[in-house]
Amino acid sequence: MSSSPNVIVIGAGVLGLSSAAELAARGHAVTVLDPGGPNASSAAAGMIAPAMESLIDGLSPDHAALLKRGRDLWPAFAGQHGLTLHLDGAEWRGPDPDAAVVILRRLGFAAERAGEGLFTPDDWRIEAQGALAQLSVLPGVARVEATVARLFHADGLWTVVSADGRQWTAPAVVLATGAATALPGLPEAVAALVDAIEPIRGQLTPIVCAAPQRVLRGPGGYATPTADGALCGATMQSGERSTDPDMEIAARQVANGVALIGGEGQAGQPRVGIRGASPDGLPMAGPSGAPGLHLALAPRRNGWLLGPMVGAIVADGIEGRAPLADASALSPLRVFTQPAARSAG
Fold it and tell me: How many CB atoms neighbour CB 327 within 10 A?
């Protein structure tokens, strides 16, 4: 079996599907190849949280501003693709909330004291699994269940071959394979970038309870609202690739979530995903340096936050358009450095 889209996206996480959605909206015929089953994006809580990410990770003003600009692309993206965006903000219930308010305001976020903590309206959320399902069936996007075995480039075209022998050919390929190792057939320089991505295991645990009104966060994790309760998480276990749930971690997450909510809850089945991270914590998005090969990889824990930005950068690269101002910060060809943290003073 063969087909001829003009863009092939390998991987159906949020970065792959955001890229596919943006390309399809611009008139491209996109085929998304993915083996199916859960991935890091479907296991996530769907938080679009530039303020809390900046506070918790001690990000520099430049890094925080980039996350905020990524968040600002979400209303138009959600409206265009029929996604429900929740704009209910987030609460921080950690130590020294007065200092945290000062930090957030210095970084350009709105924040005010609320109860024993603080509230910011600048963090939003989306229901991850429902959003992935919606992005998979957009006009112009054909999602095919396939395990990609290899790819090769010849005569200006990429050919992608599945494990069962099916083939797809297109002038452009978007590699959105998460924390997976490099596929056979990638150019050596691109394979080196892919294999340098750090896997980070993330686990969260749902609880059936009275749902909180908004995301609640503290030093022990978070509780984010769902239709029947909350998702409690999440771990950041560097170098780990096991997707088996850890029930001791689940018990701690449930206890922390119940404490944040201030009630009782019944634990559900934990979700586990393997995120990918670059050395500076930002995605690799855009042209790879190899003809027709583009990357949408390694967002650390900000895949949902930066999905529309990555999609726009990838689509601009494929079309040869002038890139977004933030494209250079996310370029796969940038010089990677460790993120610069701001002082807490």
Answer: 21
